[in-house]
Amino acid sequence: MSLKQSLGKVTIVDFWASWCGPCRKENPNVVAIYKELHAKGLNIVGVSLDKETGAWKEAIAKDGLTWTQVSNLKYWDEPIAKQYNVESIPATFILDATGKVVAQDLRGPELKAKILELLAK
Questions:
Q1: 72 within 8 A of 79, measured Cβ to Cβ
Q2: Are 50 and 19 in contact (CB under 8 A)?
Q3: Closest to 119 in 3D by CA, of 6, 5, 1, 11
Q4: What are the domain boundaries of the chain?
Q5: Which CATH architecture best describes the domain 8-119?
């Protein structure tokens, strides 16, 4: 899976893990935004810092995360997290349609507002 496949769409790169309480608490908000705005051009890629396939897949199912999910199951040694210099989770990076990071670590209403702003361009 390559982020280049997402070019042309507003994309949230969402770093999370099944064991991360704040991540799981934010998931319903992200699910709602995705359901509302995916058809208008929003894409999300979830990157998990999990170590166990079972816990990771169970969290995806339980939280209703229907977008692309990736993980190398390497915990904090996740190569994608290192590429983005992620030092804590949840961590979100909002990319515009050209793939440029235009915002990060927005939650709730702020996240939705930024996505709506980018989709209106």
A1: yes
A2: yes
A3: 11
A4: 8-119
A5: 3-Layer(aba) Sandwich (3.40)
The pair of structure tokens assigned to 74 is: 């390497």
Encoded tokens for 105:
């670590």
Q: What is the pLDDT of residues 45-75, one digit of tens each?
A: 999 999 999 999 999 999 999 999 999 999 9
Which residues, listed in sequence order, are joined to residue 68 by a DSSP beta bridge?
45
How far CA 44 is from CA of 5, 33, 57, in Å, comes to: 12, 10, 17
CA 60 – CA 62 distance, rounded (Å): 6
Contact 15, 92 (CB under 8 A): yes
Angstrom distance (rounded) from CA 56 to CA 23 = 12
